[in-house]
Amino acid sequence: MTTIGILALQGAFVEHAGVLRGLGVETREIRLPEQLDGIDGLVIPGGESTTIGKLMVSFNLVEVLRDLARAGMPMFGTCAGMIVLAKDTVQRYDQPLLNAMNIVVHRNGFGRQVDSFEADLAMPVLGDKPFRGIFIRAPYIESIGEGVEILGKVPDGKVVCARQENMLVCAFHPELTDDPRLHRYFLEMARGCRQLVQASRA
Ligand code: GLN
């Protein structure tokens, strides 16, 4: 049985659990380091990345999450979660980042709350049907480094979904749509990573 942890410090963690359970996996809310034992992947939800960051520090999660990311744990960061997984932000706020993915993100890159919007995104890895992206004070990916594959852009060309090995990020909120394709993609990715880790131990 696959168990996916969902960082449940702040933000839209309940909605992610609903989508993942609909896809037939177990979910576990993560607030403490010991709750990470035995999970097959981790979702870092949208919310407010500065708040999630402060709580990660308070709950002693920063180092352990950095180590797990480096060790190959599949992680899926949505919106604020994408910021948390990034190497850096354009504005260089004083907030802890996991530096797990070779991307620099522009926080609130589409403007403030009133500039929240929805857009149909062409995402070839999910098939021909466009994916409806819900953007809420969303970031976008300003620059990508080596090893990062772009999976989706908004019509004006800003990168809003990407993958690097065991890391998947998107700037929008896939858990607020009834389209589970991006979560399913993450589960397939997580299963692939597990096989790789097992093969390397064999
Ligand atoms: N604006 C938020 C941040 O910078 C992200 C918003 C979201 O997750 N919907 O952390």
Please provide a written account of the structure.
The protein has 202 residues and is α/β, with parallel strands linked by helices. The protein has one domain: Rossmann fold (3-Layer(aba) Sandwich). 28% of the residues lie in helices and 29% in strands. The chain has helices at 13-22, 49-58, 62-70, 80-85, 181-201, and strands spanning 3-7, 26-30, 41-44, 75-78, 86-89, 101-106, 117-121, 131-135, 140-144, 149-153, 159-164, 167-170. The strands form three sheets. A seven-stranded mixed beta sheet has the order 2-1-3-4-12-11-10. A three-stranded mixed beta sheet has the order 5-6-9. It is globular and about 45 Å long. The model has no long low-confidence stretch (mean pLDDT 95). It binds glutamine (GLN). Residues 46-49, 79-80, 83, 107-108, 136-137 line the site of glutamine.
Level-1 CATH class name: Alpha Beta
> What's the total count of β strands?
12
Order of helices and strands: EHEEHHEHEEEEEEEEH
In CATH, the architecture is 3-Layer(aba) Sandwich
Number of domains: 1
Strand order of the largest sheet: 2-1-3-4-12-11-10
Bound molecules: glutamine
Helix content range of the residues, please?
Answer: 25-40%
Rounded average pLDDT: 95
Strand fraction equals: 25-35%
Rg? 15 Å
**Cα distance spanning the termini:** 21 Å
Oligomeric assembly: single chain
Instruction: Supply the number of helical segments.
Output: 5
What is the CATH superfamily classification? Class I glutamine amidotransferase (GATase) domain
Identify the overall geometry.
globular
What class do helices, strands and sheet pairing give? alpha/beta
CATH topology: Rossmann fold
Uncertain residue segments: none
What summary fits the major beta sheet? 7 strands, mixed
